[in-house]
Amino acid sequence: MNKKPKMAIFKFTGCAGCQLEFLHLEDEFLDLLDLFDIRYWKMIKRDNDEKEWDISLVEGGISTPREIEEIKQIRKKTKFLVAFGDCAIGGCIPSIRNWTPQMEVEDYVYPDTSSIHSMKVTGIGEYVKVDEILKGCPPHRDTLIELFKSALLKIRPRLRKHSVCVECKFNDNECLLTSKKMACMGPVISAGCGAICPTLGRVCEGCFGPMSNPNAAALAEIFKDMGLNDKDIKRKFRKYAGMSPEFRMEAGH
Amino acid sequence: MDAYTIEKKDMKILLKRFQEDYKVFGPIKPGLESKFDEIKSIEQLHLDYISTVLPPKKFFHPPKEAMFSYKIEKGRFTSKEIKQNEKILIIGIHPCDVYALLKLDKLFSGDFKDPYYQNRRKNCVIVALNCVKPSEYSFCSSMNTGPFLDKGYDILLTDIGTKYLIELGTKTGEKLIEGLNLKKATKDNYHEKKRRLETSKKKIKKSMDALKISRIAQKNLHHEVWFDLGECGGVAGSLPCLSCGSCTFVCPTCYCYDVYDTVDFSLKSGTRNRELDSCQLLEYGEVAHGGNFRKDRKDRIRHWMLCKFGVAAGGSNSSCVGCGRCIRVCPSKIDITAVAKAIGGG
Fold it and tell me: Which of A71, A213, B160, B255 has its CA 20 to 30 A from that of A60?
């Protein structure tokens, strides 16, 4: 076998949950260490090397000028860059603040805002070229494993981005939207979670972001017919992927 | 063949007999959103169900299955088929779903035989149940697939009040009830069955002219209906399609699947799997280098409807059985019978 591919894991504006999900691989984690050489991962390593990497997983969105600089440096040193999780893809939950004036948001948190250099939160794709995305908040461990294996085999990973409805049907679930009149985001949200929430009788919140070619306008219309008001509908689309081009209109841009 | 009757309260005798040789599956909930699952005791069996979320297709062409495992040793590939040899019996399948299985049989045993499907089918006994309570979404009578059945069963049950009429379709079915000392069916029982068929037919509200629509749809590939369904407007009070794919997964005759490998970390062994796919999903028409034959939603919804109308894939054979599941499950309330009428084949 060739030399082990060098891997790096970085975090920007996010909650570190995606990295944690990686650590939670547990059963497979030791196998992975045999296959990859993890050169940079501040969460678990004391000595980190900043040379070049074959594959970099980047968690978190970009929200300060310093982060812009850093992500550009990472891109320069990386062969294959992965946006790891919804924050890195489109800002995700931290981006909810993009709809409130910057000044107001800063005042909520900091007594003295004079040293804050924060901007609107976006995904890393706003500044650098991204080679692959792993959807989810956090991504499902199976998709991580699929990505790693594909990287070793040098083939395209099988990361399908169809609706949650697909997995919901695989589980033989009754439809929360049509049968229970619950405002489920499933028909426009990317699968990958195994439809965990709907299987437990809870609506899909949308944590995997938009599916491929979603019809967000039609779902917003369905929510309206159910009696949701405009504000609630906007909140639903803003929550995990308000910055995505697919949900922009419904999130209220 | 002879026919018999059994009191409803005595159904446990029949179930016990079935369980001697088979793992028994049946509807486990009443109502429209029932589910075929294993029946261990008679209390779990709800033959008064109206419809299920997934059709019995899931037993023969499951949403996900492993086809074979493979490994490479010293440069040589070997593979081992994963065979499913469990003997099962499904009780309570409605006529529409039996007809759907007959259509799948034809498909999977044509020029290209599908051993996985055929093997499962061979190991299964069908105890069908005539449909006396069609749902508000059904249009089986338009498709000649219900509400009552005349083929495709080993045993056929009909609810005739306090009893079930038991008709036998095959030797397997005959053997199964041998020695149970069931009462022979009388003329009155048959008369009651006929009466129930007539009442059942009257309960069906939706309709579609299957022959006419297959002829008309072919000539209306650019009808505005497809644009309304795909992009804006909707048809007959519906909203446009969401491309969620629900209609195809609950369809008892949709058979399209995707094949992919799961490789072990050793990168030297793995399994080849298949998973149901849907023509409503963007990735379905995708080919190498990002090309896509059905990039637009309107093309995808049109493709599916034409397939159900009997136009796609060579035509002449409608793959719809009128079970109405797609109408019930559609969040946008798209109704295939209304679409047929809008094109002019109703």
Answer: A213
Residue by residue, DSSP assigns A171-227 as TTPPPTTTTT-----GGGBB--S-SHHHHTT-----TT-B-SS--HHHHHHHHHHHT
- Domains in chain A, number: 2
Answer whether A172 touches B (CB < 8 Å).
yes
Please indicate if any CB of chain A lies within 8 Å of the CB of B218.
no
**Could you count the other beta carbons within 10 Å of the beta carbon of residue A47?**
6
Check CB contact of A4 with chain B, cutoff 8 Å: no
* B-chain residue closest to A210, CA distance: B244
* Nearest-CA distance B52 → chain A (Å): 9
**A206 is written with which tokens?**
């949308």
CA distance A6 to A53: 5
Report the residue of chain B nearest A142, measured CA to CA.
Answer: B262
Mark whether A90 and A202 lie in a shared domain.
no
Contact B267, A153 (CB under 8 A): yes
Strands (E), B190-341: 257-263, 269-276
Q: Domain check: are A68 and A187 in the same one?
A: no
Per-residue pLDDT of chain A (253 residues; tens, 9 = 90+): 468 999 999 999 999 999 999 999 988 999 999 999 999 999 999 999 989 999 999 999 999 999 999 999 999 999 999 999 999 999 999 999 999 999 999 999 999 999 999 999 999 999 999 999 999 999 999 999 999 999 999 999 999 999 999 999 999 999 999 999 999 999 999 999 999 999 999 999 999 999 999 999 999 999 999 999 999 999 999 999 999 999 999 998 7
CB pair distance less than 8 Å for B63 and A32:
no
Q: Are strands A37-41 and A6-11 parallel, antiparallel or unpaired?
A: parallel
A42/A134 same-domain check: yes
A191 at the B interface (CB within 8 A)? no
- Chain B residues whose beta carbon lies within 8 Å of the beta carbon of residue A246: none
Supply φ then ψ for residue B312, to 5 degrees: -70, 170
Same domain, residue pair A22 and A147:
yes
Same domain assignment for residues A114 and A176: no
What domain range includes position A245?
A: 164-251
Q: What is the pLDDT of residues B138-188, one digit of tens each?
A: 999 999 998 999 999 999 999 999 999 999 999 999 999 999 999 999 999
Closest chain B residue by Cα to residue A154: B267
Q: Do B331 and A219 touch (CB under 8 A)?
A: yes
Contacts of B246 in chain A (CB under 8 A): 165, 169, 175, 187
ipTM over 0.90: yes
Question: Does residue A58 sit in the same domain as residue A131?
Answer: yes
Is the domain of A39 the same as that of A134? yes
CA distance A175 to chain B (A): 7
Q: Domain holding A84: CATH number?
A: 3.40.50.700
